[in-house]
Amino acid sequence: AGNPCCSYPCQNGGVCMPHSNSQYTCDCTGTEFYGQNCETPTLLQRFKLLLRPTPETLHTWLVHNKWLWDIVNSMTFVKDFIMKMVVLIRSNIVDAPPTYTSDHEYITLDAATNLSYFTRALPPVPRECPTPMGVVGPKILPDPKLVAEKLFRRTEFKRDALDSSVLLTFFAQHFTHMFFKTDMKKGPGFTWGGHGVDGSSVYGPDKHTENLLRSFTDGKLKSQMINGEEWPPYVSDAPVKMLYPPSVPKDKQFALGHEFFGLLPGLLAYGAIWLREHNRVCEILKTEHPHWDDEQLFQTTKLIIIGETIKIVIEDYVQHLSNYHFKLFFKPELMFGQSFQYSNRISVEFNHLYHWHPLMPDNFNISGTDYKLRNFMFNTEIPVKHGMRQLVESFSSQHAGKVTFRNHGAGTMHVAVDTIKHGRELRFQSFNQYRKRFRLKPYSSFQELTGETEIAAELESLYEDIEAVEFYVGVIVERHREQSMFGGGMIEIGGPFSVKGLMANPICSPKYWKPSTFGGDVGFNIIKTASLKKLFCKNIDGDCPLVSLKVPQ
Ligand code: MNH
Question: N vs C: which end of the chain shows fewer Cβ within 10 Å?
């Protein structure tokens, strides 16, 4: 007899325990449901279900009724309450401490203690199950290359509906590579990252790299002046491990916090602007504390840079992605005294859903010159030649692609294929299982999933059963919500991981979040007033350039 848990009989977050006689029990503890399959709500839960608006309704409210949100945004008590609820409700959906890894379909202590694992929101499908998704769908899933060709390859460039700019694209890539770091030597379920916003995209993944990037004077990082602008040092001056192709000479290889950040001028631009900001903050702290040594200036500036990062991610980046009329804000005090764990673990599902390669256009226009991706990649001359001002203005003026079906550029198709392969190797449960895990209604038809007919028909011919659609395929081809960059799955699964990762940072905890940690009010205020616009404007000479995550009309 097979494993009865392969059919996922336990509902509402109940845990399935198989017995030797092909029977099972559902552990409904803490779910507020009971019954054989945790299918019956308790009286209290029944009321909650009646009163709680669906995620779709909430989204509709948040992207409409601007007049109402304008009032809400002006009332401190009301907006504080809403922001607190956003953080608490979203982060409650993420298990802390972490529970699962990709190596076991049950809870292990390793899941909590072994930091080389990405964690898992849902455990893998047991190996002995009849099909890759449990009991439903084909025994052998369709060829990943075929799936990518039929569903992902860009036919024509579709631009993002919110007019996101390429500056947004590179922000997403630069920011998330701080914590999405698959350790392929160990396998797709493992990571060499620090599980959160740790500044490693600027300072490197370890102490050794950090020391190579430091100047050891006044807390500053090594840098060089080219054409009157501050840029990162070359590898010859800061011999960190970087992955450049042989075509880039050693004396043209910039040294950055992440080994891949030589890949694209947009990543180099963000690397350089954060480096400039670090060195700028060092000078401010040195004026404030003339007696501080290099070490204290460096360490305190690093804390400020992490604070600025979180502030900008919430108030500029997530604000843009969400498109809500409610103005999100960074206020760690809101969580004090609430039940909230200041620890975070990156899940491999979060990594997969963040493969937003459709954001990338096929060519890049910098001040009138069109570069094909092929000539843009690993081209370290471009940033220096055009300068930071032209880069940021050009990125702000070019449209990003729409994260949807048939919009992966040729240069990133292989990444999509790998993502599908990894999802299978890690035995990801189906997209519908993840919808349920994150409090969404599972789809009942392919049409309902895509909101159209052509892709729905392709999907059906590939997967046969709606319950067998894979996770990554689901989040990409899903019908978008109104006034949104994504479908409901991307938002409701990604949102909790994102909010938890930002607010569970150590600097947000009561013993850290006070002026003295950041060199007094001067440092604390740098965090509290940070914005993407200021980040660029304070670090580019002359007038403030155009800095926008949205292409101006
Ligand atoms: Mn991208 C991983 C290429 C843009 C997010 N990306 C990878 C990998 C390659 C790659 C190669 C390695 C994965 C593999 O093959 O298994 N990515 C690119 C290229 C571009 C690019 C050539 C632009 C052109 N990537 C982007 C953008 C995002 C993004 C934009 C948006 C957030 N990429 C990811 C994530 C990973 C990844 C997330 C996973 C990283 C990891 O786990 O190590």
Answer: C
Residue owning the nearest CA to atom 23 of ligand 1? 360
> Which atom of ligand 1 sits closest to the CA of residue 422?
16
Ligand 1 midpoint to CA 101 (Å): 22
Measured in residues, the chain has a length of: 553
Specify whether the backbone of 219 is left (phi greater than 0), alpha (psi in -120 to 50) or beta. Answer: left
DSSP codes joined into one string, 296-320: HHHHHHHHHHHHHHHHHIIIIIIHH
ipTM: 0.98
pLDDT digits (tens, 9 = 90+) for 334-378: 999 999 999 999 999 999 999 999 999 999 999 999 999 999 999
Dihedral, CA atoms, 340, 342, 345, 350, nearest 10 degrees?
60
pTM of the complete model beyond 0.90: yes
pLDDT in tens, 487-531: 999 999 999 999 999 999 999 999 999 999 999 999 999 999 999
pLDDT tens-digit readout, 396-412: 999 999 999 999 999 99
Q: Output the CA–CA distances (angstroms, integers) from residue 346 to 247, 265, 341, 352, in the order listed.
A: 34, 27, 14, 11
The C-alpha torsion from 344 through 347 and 350 to 352, rounded to 10°, is 150
414 CB-side CA count, 13 A:
1
